[in-house]
Amino acid sequence: MTEIERLVSEIETYARRSGISPSTVGERAGQGGLFYRRLKEGRRAWPDTIEKVRRYMSDNPPPVPEATKSEAA
Question: In order of start, what are the domains of the chain with their CATH numbers?
Fold first, then answer.
């Protein structure tokens, strides 16, 4: 799996857990709404851009589902 394929997978997982579209992840990370589509088309991304998107996802974790919160209590 290439670095871009890994990033696409990470974005898709984050988006699913956050209840948003993958293109919204790119937009919120400061890369624009077309960032995800470009990655899916096989376009490249600079290492610092990849790190920026990963940092955004790390700094803004998906919300914990209510069912999980009540189970932990």
Answer: 3-72 (1.10.260)
Model confidence pLDDT, tens digit, residues 7-63 = 999 999 999 999 999 999 999 999 999 999 999 999 999 999 999 999 999 999 998
Q: Cβ distance 18 to 62 under 8 Å? A: yes
- Alpha helices by DSSP H, listed for the chain, are 3-18, 22-28, 35-40, 47-59, 66-72
Helix and strand totals (H; E) in the chain: 5, 0
> Beta-carbon neighbour count of residue 9 at 10 Å?
11
Q: Can you give the pLDDT at residue 65?
A: 73
